[in-house]
């Protein structure tokens, strides 16, 4: 009788130990997920938080276990930004029954938040947070490529239809110009011809934005490329009271590029930087810094200015064809630049904050002299 009791007790202990081992194993898995995990029980008390979530909140794990939501929001080291986001998620989950949320944090990263609750959770609330910044970047790139492809179809259909009548109008105006000159109205002819030429320039830029010509590549050193490009901008920068500074760059960095196209991209970015500086100049000393450094098999060329900067809404549309904030801009310069860099197997990114200036980063594959 006693031996049967001891055997049953031993089996119970072994079963408990086995269950505990399984529990520890799964808890260890949850602790090291790349997603943040929070678990609140049916009373609203935080019973589990993994390492990743503690890092995201920038709070020590042990100070959070046992807290309810109100205590979490009142944590002395929780930032005001995170307090607002947590409160918003709670409000939308409880009152609007939303289970999926997307937000951008103070560092510009995109997060997908999923809240699981209901009968399957026995009253508990499971909240998981995943960084989806890379997916958003891929989505944005695909969206941009789709728009450029559509732009190409439109331009192919209408470009010649516009150019042909413009050419005829220009020819007739030139024929009429001597008669207008006799009437003292030559100024009219000059203005008409100038406006027709401007329309042709816009059409040309429009066509290039949809399908820039294939790169005619040559191997050049990055320092010489940037020095030559700066020489083309120095006089304009001087007139606008803007200092340009080229950082020290490794002479061995080589790229295989269409020099004319890449210069076009960099000059366009520099011109935008000058205009951004003009908006806030006054006593403000304008500065454009250009540099380049190797990152793996790529070289990152940066153009940084201390101009007016841009807000996040503007940044999301920056490479859209025809989007511009300039009174006389066509909105094609940066969309053309995007396409040129893509055709070279590179990427172009921008980081900016209103009132803090802007940084453009062009990444191009390095090459080796054969």
TrEMBL record:
Its EC number is 2.7.13.3. It comes from the Bacteria. InterPro entries: HATPase_C_sf, HATPase_dom, His_kinase_dom, HisK_dim/P_dom, HisK_dim/P_sf, PAS, PAS-like_dom_sf, Sig_transdc_His_kin-like_C. It holds the Pfam family PAS_7. Keywords: ATP-binding, Kinase, Nucleotide-binding, Phosphoprotein, Transferase, Two-component regulatory system. The keyword Mitochondrion does not apply. GO terms for molecular function: ATP binding; phosphorelay sensor kinase activity. Gene3D superfamilies: 1.10.287.130, Histidine kinase-like ATPase, C-terminal domain (3.30.565.10), PAS domain (3.30.450.20). This is histidine kinase.
């Amino acid at each position: 009788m006693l031996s049967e009791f001891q055997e049953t007790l031993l089996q119970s202990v072994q079963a408990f130990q086995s269950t505990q081992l399984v529990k520890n194993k799964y808890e260890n898995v949850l602790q090291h997920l790349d997603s943040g995990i929070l678990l609140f029980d049916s009373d609203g008390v935080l019973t589990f938080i993994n390492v990743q979530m503690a890092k995201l909140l920038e709070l020590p794990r042990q100070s959070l276990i046992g807290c309810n939501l109100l205590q979490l929001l009142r944590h002395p080291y929780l930032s005001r930004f995170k307090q607002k986001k947590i409160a918003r998620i709670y409000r939308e989950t409880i009152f609007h029954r939303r289970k999926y949320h997307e937000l951008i944090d103070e560092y510009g990263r995109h997060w997908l938040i999923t809240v699981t609750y209901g009968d399957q959770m026995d009253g508990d609330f499971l909240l998981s947070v995943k960084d989806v910044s890379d997916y958003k970047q891929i989505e944005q790139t695909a969206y941009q490529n789709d728009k450029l492809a559509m732009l190409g179809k439109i331009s192919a259909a209408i470009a010649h239809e516009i150019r042909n009548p413009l050419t005829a109008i220009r020819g007739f105006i030139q024929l009429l110009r001597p008669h207008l000159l006799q009437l003292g109205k030559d100024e009219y002819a000059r203005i008409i011809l100038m406006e027709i030429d401007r329309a042709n320039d816009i059409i040309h830029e429009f066509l290039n934005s949809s399908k820039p010509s294939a790169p005619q590549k040559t191997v050049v050193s990055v320092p010489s490329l940037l020095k030559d490009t700066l020489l083309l901008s120095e006089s304009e920068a001087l007139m606008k009271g803007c200092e340009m500074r080229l950082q020290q760059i490794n002479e061995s960095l080589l790229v295989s590029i269409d020099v004319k196209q890449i210069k076009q991209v960099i000059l366009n970015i520099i011109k935008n930087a000058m205009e951004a500086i003009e908006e806030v100049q006054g006593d403000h000393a304008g500065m454009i810094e250009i540099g380049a450094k190797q990152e793996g098999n790529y070289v990152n060329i940066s153009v940084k200015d201390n101009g007016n900067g841009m807000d996040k809404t503007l940044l999301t549309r920056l490479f859209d064809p025809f989007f511009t904030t300039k009174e006389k801009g066509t909105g094609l310069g940066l969309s053309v630049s995007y396409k040129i860099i893509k055709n070279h197997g590179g990427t172009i990114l921008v980081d900016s904050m209103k009132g803090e200036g802007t940084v453009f980063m062009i990444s191009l594959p390095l090459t080796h002299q054969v």
